Amino acid sequence: MNHGGSILAYALQQLINGVTLGMIYGLIAVGYTMVYGIIGMINFAHGDVFMIGAFLSLIALVGLAAIGVTAVPLALAMALLFAAAISALYGWAIERVAYRPLRGSFRLAPLISAIGMSITLENYVQVVQGARVKPLMPLIPGGITLMNQNGFAVRLGWLQMLIVLVTLLVLAIFTWLVTRTPLGRAMRACEQDLKMTALLGIDVDRTISLTFVIGAALAAVAGFMFLLYYGSIDFFIGFIAGVKAFTAAVLGGIGSLPGAVLGGLLIGLIETFWSAYFSVQYKDVAAFSILAIALIFLPTGLLGRAEVEKV
Amino acid sequence: MPRKTRIIRLTAVLGALLIGMAPAARAQIKIAVVGPITGSNATFGTQMKEGAEQAVADINAKGGVLGQKLVLEIGDDACDPKQAVSVANQMAERGVKVVVGHFCSSSSIPASKVYTEEGILQISPASTNPAYTDNGSWNTFRVCGRDDQQGAVAGKYIAEHFRGARVAILHDNSAYGKGLADETRKAMNAAGLKETIYTAYVPGERDYSALVSRLKEAGITVIYIGGYQNEAGLIIRQAKEQGMHVTLIGGDALVTKEFWDITGNTGEGTLMTFPPDPRSRPSAAAVVQEFKAKGIDPEGYVLYTYAAIQIWAEAATKAHSAEPRKVAETLKANGPWPSVLGDIAFDKKGDITKGDYVFYVWHNGGYSQM
């Protein structure tokens, strides 16, 4: 298939593709892993909050264009803030309605409630926004050509750089938040023992609510980047991206923030390189097979800690 | 609950009486138009309804068919296969002789099974999937082209206009997409051009960058896509972002504003096959005037629906009967039938004998015939 001796350039281009895709997965995966880290529950509705974040960003961008805000950086910043704020509200409400009443009940109850919430959100958006794909024109086109080998030009888009930067920035901020702030300390305490944490005078409900609010705002950032990069969203994107991101969180070691990004990166790279050198059709089969094999040998994921039962 | 049972029984008897009475009415012939009156394809449903209403009005103004007036029933399938089957059963109950519809192939095909069993003639103005007529039912007809006719036009065009180019043929593995891609490939190979890459992609994804890089590395300059506007739009957008100089060629699915919404300027110059605008045909001039006088622009499928009813009426007159089987035989045995779409003849399957596809091109946010 190689026709012009551009093996290196081709691999580099695919690496760029894979890293970008992986960073998007990682950005969503951070939200899964954070909630799991605190209350030990998979928040299946996270993918749908991501979808809602993308829709809110689009609504904001269209609205801003309509009232005459045409400066692209200003419009983007305002849309991102709007989407993050409203999504945070969604996150708070979801926790309040679907998870808090079930806290202290058996372990599977909030999981089922989460799946129900996910279906509810998807259908809600389908009804109010319609089932059709919603497009956004390219707002930040262009990029740079890194190298040129026998006519094969390696392109790196501005948006691709932005996605990598945003993901790493988010990872840094959240690692700092969890390890260095009072809120982070409260979160880690909740992770170990909810009852004991409450006895020590920490408002557990407030801590968990805040976790969901932050997680949802993060999902909105991911939705915003997704919308800008791909320019096409519908009510179902949360499901597909959610499954991949959840897989990334598990592969990286659920509960670990750097693990989520690392897991996302690996899945993105596996998918891309499989498509690049083998079959485009079976990339998901490849990604999930590797996940299954990895979990056989590393049951806690790449960076996950084994759960130690203290007696 | 004996009381409740009695009421139900009474209602059933009354209902049966009412149903029994309906066909006993006077000399009328019931025909139906069924399409997506609601849902995301409602634009097309409205076009079909407008075309059908005008056709029935025009025929009745000239005295109807076989001396009887036509009565039009309107059915809504929302392009949902399940709803299509239940509407088909409703139409059978109402005793219609012919159904003009449905719109989506995925509705027309399951509904056609009901019509075959119930002895109703079906003429689709829009369903292009070959399977609709390929199963050999006596009652299925269409006045539009088939996807394989479309592929033949596209393949020949690529071979002639892009001689020596490196061509990639992609499809989404759907009945429509793969069918179209395979037909295009066949015609292109027959005309002496071999594709460099032939592969399927996964529909519903957003990231096609790995596929695009693969095309770039193979030096592709022409991409043919058998698939829908969303994926085709993303693929060409990502290809241009990676600095490729390619021409995208696709089928009728790309003739929608949604395609340009996704691609923006990266969609410039995209080519696709689509039937020529029926409004510009001389045979349609008089009817187009009638529509315009009513404030209706007979775009899209309005005239296709009009033609379906027009041809049916002529065949029924010629057969001296509205009995569906007789009309079906007459439609196939005779012809060509003059209509607003020009002269149309049917082959043994019920397809039109002349596939009429031409090329359209996207330019500056709009598309036009080349």
What is the helix content of chain A? over 70%
Shape label of chain B: elongated
Largest sheet features of chain B: 7 strands, mixed
Low-confidence spans of chain B:
20-25
Seen as an oligomer or otherwise, the chain set is: heterodimer
In terms of per-residue confidence, which ranges of chain A show pLDDT below 50 for 5 or more consecutive residues?
none
Largest interface: A-B, 44 and 31 residues
Describe this structure in words.
The complex is a heterodimer of chains A (311) and B (370). With 311 residues, chain A is mainly alpha-helical. Chain A has a single domain (21-297), classed as ABC transporter involved in vitamin B12 uptake, BtuC, CATH 1.10.3470. Chain A is 72% helix and 5% strand. Chain A has a two-stranded antiparallel sheet. Chain A has a two-stranded antiparallel ribbon with strand order 2-3. In chain A, helix 1 crosses helix 9. The model of chain A has no long low-confidence stretch (mean pLDDT 88). Chain B is an alpha/beta fold and 370 residues long. Chain B folds into two domains: 27-145 and 280-333, 3-Layer(aba) Sandwich (Rossmann fold), CATH 3.40.50.2300; 148-274, Rossmann fold. Chain B contains 13 helices and twelve strands. Chain A binds chain B through residues 1-4, 6, 10, 13-14, 17-18, 20-21, 130-133, 135, 137-138, 141, 143, 145, 151-153, 155, 157, 226, 230-232, 236-237, 240, 271-273, 275-276, 279-281, 283-284, and chain B through 40, 173, 199-202, 204-207, 209-211, 213-214, 216-219, 230, 233-234, 237, 241-243, 258, 261-262, 264, 266.
